[in-house]
Specification:
- The chain is of the alpha/beta class.
- The protein is about 20% helix and about 40% strand.
- It has two helices and eight strands, in the order E-E-E-H-E-E-E-H-E-E.
- The strands form two sheets. Strands 1, 2, 3, 6, 7 and 8 form a six-stranded mixed sheet that branches. A two-stranded antiparallel sheet has the order 4-5.
- Strand 6, helix 2 and strand 7 form a beta-alpha-beta unit.
- It is globular, with a radius of gyration of 15 Å.
- The protein starts with a strand and ends with a strand.
Length: about 140
């Protein structure tokens, strides 16, 4: 599983011109599911996302995780993170999980996060427009 996380001052996701998920301070999590991913990987990635210390402490050092910073999550499915871009000029998505499995693992990841922190979402497989104010900018690629 892959999470591209961005520290944000605010973020939202729209479907058909309607906001379906919105947060203030926190993390925008673009989530990709690959073939071979399972529940254990979702659990490890959730722990990593929630524990990753990328928010500033009182000394302005990246030392706090999203929960310690009183932040929230906005989780958006993004199958393109699983793309193979090594050859040619068109990405291959053979590494990506089948849509049904990806949806199941996406929902499981979201449920795990919701048990620990305010978590908003996009709509799986929808055409979404994501808006954000990246704080820093701070962006990390996490993979388990």
């Amino acid at each position: 599983m892959i999470a591209l996380i961005q520290r944000v001052k605010e973020a939202s996701v729209c479907v058909n011109s309607e906001i379906v998920g919105q947060i203030d301070l926190g993390l925008l999590v673009l989530l990709g599911v690959e073939e071979g991913d399972d529940l254990q990987k979702a659990e490890r990635l959730c722990d990593k996302v929630l524990g990753y210390r990328i928010f500033s402490d009182q000394d302005n050092k990246m030392n706090l995780n999203v929960k310690q910073a009183n932040g929230q999550l906005l989780v958006v499915s993004q199958f393109t993170l699983a793309a193979d871009t090594k050859k040619g000029m068109r990405p291959s998505f053979t590494k990506g999980a089948a849509p049904e499995k990806a949806n199941d693992l996406y929902n499981y990841f979201v449920e795990l996060c919701q048990k620990q922190i305010v978590t908003k979402t996009g709509i799986f497989a929808a055409n979404m427009q994501v808006s954000l104010i990246n704080d820093g900018p701070v962006t990390f690629w996490l993979q388990v």
